[in-house]
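Section handout 9: paired folding examples.
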Amino acid sequence: MEKKKNNDMNRREFLRRLGLGAGSAMALMAMEPLKVLAQDDKKTPADKRMTYRIQRGSGEQISLLGFGMMRLPNDQEEVNRLVDYAIEHGVNYFDTAPMYLRGQSEVLMGNALSRHPREKYYMATKMSNQNNRLWDAEESKKMYYQSFQRLKTDHIDYYLLHSIGSGGMDSLEGRFINNGMLDFLLDERKAGRIRHLGFSYHGDVRVFDWLLDHNDKYHWDFVQIQMNFLDWRHASLNKNGWRKDADAEYLYNKLEKLGIQCVIMEPLRGGALGKMQDELVQQLMSLRPEDSAARWAFRWVGSHPNILTVLSGMNRMEHLEENVQTFSPLDPCTENENVLLASIADTMAGFPTIPCTTCSYCMPCPFDVDIPGNFAYYNEAVNNKILPLPEAGAADYAARQKQFADGLRKALPNEASWATACQDCEECLSKCPQQIRIPNQMARIVETLTKQ
């Protein structure tokens, strides 16, 4: 009797923190398994249906195309329109985080999804307590409860420890172990308010390995990793001063051996794989003339069997429509196509690009430098063969340098946001999930603009 009384009090306390009413309380206490509504067979031809993967622990059918909501337009009506189209065409996995759009992503997603029956979609959000101030357990719990309010839900289907690996083991211990937050989240999963618990990984592979080596204790339901045909074997070392501790091939294979399904982020590597050099695109078109470079990248990722869903940050309807077509159904890559993509990856690994995925975790800059904007333009200049510049004194050196500066001025009209404003304060370093030495890369851009 005493145990039942305590359980009831725990439920009431949870609901009080969320600000949920009696109707939500009844739904929370019931905790019935979710149902998945497939696309209407009468309306959708069999050869146009979304591809689904089965979540092994629950049997849930998850759309292989997931909607990543980090780069949403800050317009509720437009977000509603995108979400409505996605659900209508079989997409049912929607991913956000408290830090996306400074909290507005969760609000926009919650407003859009709550207009649909709850059984039609699965919500994913994260514990984004990377800031040291949030390592306090009560502050982290405030973030957790706030996600329920913003998302207008009494349970979260897929909950992640956000960006594990950044900051190494010290960060993991401070954010989740020493303060008891991981134990708290495990209890929340046991209570049913979290249906599946996992983590997203960037950075120090020792953290990734440690969490998986303790899988018998934590029983991870899924893990989110960055994976694309370039990072498959070219993520761990970059000639331009950027490194990660593991290629995607290592991450994927370890998860597959443990039977833990992957959620994939950055399948286009921040859009870079959709904007390859023309000669590389022509190699792809020689095999599939109608397919864009982005479709090739999505097909490559989706062809791997241990993947639950592939996230795409779709903030424009034309991108959403193309991606839905790519996965409805997925046409897996052939062996010859995989060989071609591996060859293209080898070529791209030699390009002097900066591996920024435009996630904007590094922003805002205290000196108002548009860090992702500078990097995006630099990479565009590499792809357009403006960079690298020839040796100073070469006949076309001055013209190419001017072309680079003119292009930067067009891409970033406000010169105060250029790399030249960087003060090397290093505040951005700990925030970058790609472990880019941002001040060093800013110096490369400044040198390109000023070298005589």
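Moving on to protein 2 of 2.
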Amino acid sequence: MTAPLLVAIDGGNSKTDVVVVGEDGSLLAGARGGGFRPHEVGDRAAVEVIATAVTTALGRAGLSRPDAGLAHVAAYLANADLPEQEESLTKALSARGWARSVRVGNDTFALLRAGASAGWGIAVVCGAGINCLGVGPDGRVSRFPALGSMTGDWGGGFHLGELALWHAVRGEDGRGPASALTAAVAAYFGVERAVDVGLALHGRNLDGGRLLELTPVLLETAAGGDAVALSVVERMAEEVTALGTVSLRRLRLLETRVEVVLGGGVLTARHPVLMTAIEERYAALAPLARLVVTDAPPILGAALLGLDEVGAPPETYAALRAALRGGGYRR
């Protein structure tokens, strides 16, 4: 049996995936835990979510000792948006004693590594939230704070769900234009009026996280030709394009053939009404960019970055890709 080499961690808003990778690139074990949300539960509790998943994966790999003796931990996390956050999380994970070295980065690095054939380019993630990373062929990096509206962000699945409800209620009570969203939102939650959804949220009879479920409702309503829903989808396409083209401009790559990797649930759903709008805008503003919607799981990017860090031989990469594309870590 191959010796364990590293632990890779993909910490998203909704779930945390962990894999233990062997020296030959094989998948030794995996585990799935809760979402990494330090902005909601605090750093200590968020790190504990990671630690629980790592401990489970290590146990499945036969490494039950606190000091697992691994070469490296590669952790790529949503909500690790600032250098000081990455530094703090690196210290917290290093203190666990799992490996000789630890690298913490934002999850956009993992998306880019998993989806870009050259290992550099632009990554735009639109899941529950939205973020963008650019890495040039010379190693220069373009990033955004990605802390929400206070740092200029717009969009993401949760925001789209909020907007779907907002327009549905305003179309219902006359403050806004009539929209098919009104009936669609009410029907989705099985209530008589769209405003009943807002009242249920206010009264905490409905979990606020379920607003994410309205993103597909919004997209389907837009596909049906509703002008209000279409305006929101077009605004989302503009934001995905703005993030990518600004990053290309910063890195002086607008005149270079470069991959723009699109990830996160909103984009990997490949809904035609949104994807067509995105493709049209990139064709106009960055015609040399090639859009890549990656089907690779984000944990693959984290594990590949881990192999990069330890200087793994080339043959381990193919083995790792084959193991993780199969989804066998999801236990």
